[in-house]
Design brief:
This protein is α/β, with parallel strands linked by helices. It has helices at about 15-20, 30-45, 60-65, 70-95, 120-125, 145-155, 190-195, 200-210, 225-230, and strands at about 10-15, 50-55, 100-105, 115, 130-135, 160-165, 170, 180-185, 185, 215-220, 235-240.
Length: about 240
């Protein structure tokens, strides 16, 4: 059970692969992944149970491969394998910080990580191990956003926390448009109707159907992950209208 200081007991953190690349367009920057691991450790030491879904866009994006003429199914599977690489990298950083971590893949590869089994994942979380879910849902045509929504519901997470490079959700990309409007709170239907880039529509619909809140926050600000877990008023919350 989480400490009295924290608002949430079990959270699912959604990390993009691009976040690991930093200012570069490709690969993993060790200083960035080390910093992310340190932030996760800080929250973990507060007693919060942490599950993570990580993307693979810093290595390969299935959609990008399709745009270049590749078969969609093959390119999506390549993207799933990229998430396993990122998951193993993050596991290595966390274990250097003495945090027991398990990578669970939706595509079986026993030599590298555990296969995803819901009950086993739940048990790892109960034992205060950080669980990294890799390979998306294991199916093409589904994004890691959808995987995050699915896994969060399967392990009974209190909330999805989506880490980004900006303060929350805006009407447009604030890094390109300084006049973009910031949204403090949103309803699921608002996100879908306005076409806001919170998560893809399948992921939003899943969360809406099961009343699972999504908090979008800036992971580039040191200490923000701890702040949102403690319930500080940071970022954008997406939930059912009238929810608390």
């Amino acid at each position: 059970m989480a400490t009295a200081k924290t608002k949430y007991t079990r959270v699912l953190l959604k990390l993009s692969g691009e976040a690991l690349a930093g200012e570069k367009s490709f690969g993993i920057q060790t200083d960035i992944i080390d910093r992310i691991a340190s932030e996760i450790k800080e929250v973990h030491e507060m007693g919060v149970e942490i599950a993570i879904v990580i993307g693979g866009g810093n290595i390969f994006r299935g959609i990008a491969g399709t745009a270049q003429g590749m078969d969609r199914t093959s390119s999506d599977y390549m993207g799933m394998l990229a998430t396993v690489i990122n998951g193993l990298a993050l596991q290595n950083c966390l274990e250097k910080l003495d945090i027991y971590t398990r990578v669970m893949s939706a595509i079986e590869m026993h030599e590298l990580c555990e296969p995803y089994i819901r009950r086993r994942a739940m048990r790892h979380l109960e034992k205060k191990r950080v669980v990294i879910f890799a390979a998306g849902t294991g199916n093409p045509y589904f994004t890691t956003d959808t995987a995050a929504s699915l896994r969060a519901m399967e392990v009974n997470a209190d909330i999805i926390m989506k880490a980004t490079r900006v303060e929350g959700v805006y009407s447009d990309d604030p890094l390109k448009n300084s006049e973009a409007t910031f949204f403090k709170t949103l309803d699921y239907m608002e996100v879908l109707k306005k076409g806001l880039k919170v998560m893809d529509s399948t992921a939003i619909s899943l969360c809406m159907d099961h009343d699972l809140p999504i908090l979008v926050f800036n992971l580039n600000r040191p200490g923000n992950y701890k702040r949102v877990v403690m319930g500080e008023d940071i970022g954008t919350i997406v939930r059912k209208a009238g929810g608390s």
